[in-house]
Amino acid sequence: MTTTLAQPATHAAPISPSRLLTPTTDSLRRQAQPWTVDAVAALFELPFNDLLFRAQALHREHFDANAVQLSTLLSIKTGGCEEDCKYCPQSAHFDTGLKAEKLLPLQEVMEAARAAKQSGATRFCMGAAWRSPKPRHLEQIGEMISGVKALGLETCLTAGMLDDGQAEQLQQAGLDYYNHNLDTAPEFYGQIITTRTYQDRLDTLDRVRQVGLKVCSGGIVGMGETRRQRAGLIVQLANLDPYPESVPINNLVQVEGTPLAGTAELDPFEFVRTIAVARITMPRAMVRLSAGREAMPESLQALCFLAGANSMFYGDRLLTTGNPQADKDRALLQRLGMRCSTEDELARQPAD
To answer: Is the pLDDT of residue 136 over 60?
Structure first.
């Protein structure tokens, strides 16, 4: 069955405070009634302390609150992408000084994966700047996936849209997760991207689900969207059935040469609210601090953990933009009394 856009109901009945403060779901399946934009917007409107209390209570119900899963992301094919995503320095449509490169050789990828494991990462994510991969690309990537899996790391890949049969090929190579972000709400999407449709993204996620791969899908905030549009993004993710196992929340990294350079920065507390709302609406997902973390003070990152983030990208670079260095990250986690764990170690078993 093909996934279609969740309808952004705008006249839903008001939500009582007791429902807003009471954890409900205990699985990856969405709640019995789909989330509406009104319902999610109501979460965003809660007093900050009430919102974090609800998110933290639900987080503790399903996860070890003092542990975080670490992922490392490597750009295996940089630049020259055909898409016109206005936030992306890798788009061929914009002059950001980034040169297009070929797919990395297997040996270089394996060296990076070994270094990631040695630094404490448990998942190795590979990103390729394509509109969609060609068959010859998947053959090479399949070797990378097999090699990284042999090191004992989980594998994740983001390589654009997938055609029929391509998700199955990745699954047969041993891939664990496929990342394909929805980026933003449907009603704001056309202001950010014109070279592929929202439905194209949902169709790729359907293909990934149909072959049994885990889904990694989230979005970017701080692109000039409204709070209600942030709620619309969360609605789309939370109403996927099941919702994604991994939900990366990115804060826009502004790069000179992209159309979004100079966009007014998102209020830091609004970013924390987005993390909390993602946790509440997708209680068993791994909610990941992703792009933009380099510019976040440690106090803000700590608030994000309190709001329910339990995964983060870890290392010196995030595709083509900076990321806090591994030593600094380890020091922060130590100061917070947090430890690194795998996803399986983090999750609490459902109550009988």
So the answer is: yes
Q: Is 85 an annotated catalytic residue?
A: yes
Task: Tell me if residue 53 falls in helix, strand or coil.
Answer: helix
Can you give the C-alpha Rg of the chain in angstroms? Answer: 19
Q: Which of 207, 216, 273, 284 is catalytic?
A: 216
Question: What's the one-letter identity of residue 273?
Answer: R
Is-contact 42 16, C-beta < 8 A?
no
Annotated catalytic residue within 88, 123, 201, 209: 88
CB 156 within 8 A of CB 123: yes
Residue 288 designated active-site: yes
The answer to whether residue 125 is catalytic is yes
| 216 labelled catalytic | yes
Among residues 123, 125, 196, 230, which one is catalytic?
125
The predicted model gives 20-44 an average pLDDT of 72
Instruction: Tell how strand 123-128 and strand 286-289 pair up.
Output: unpaired
Cα torsion angle, 241, 246, 247, 250, sign = negative
Contact 158, 175 (CB under 8 A): no
Q: Which candidate in 30, 230, 288, 293 is catalytic? A: 288
Q: Structure pTM?
A: 0.85
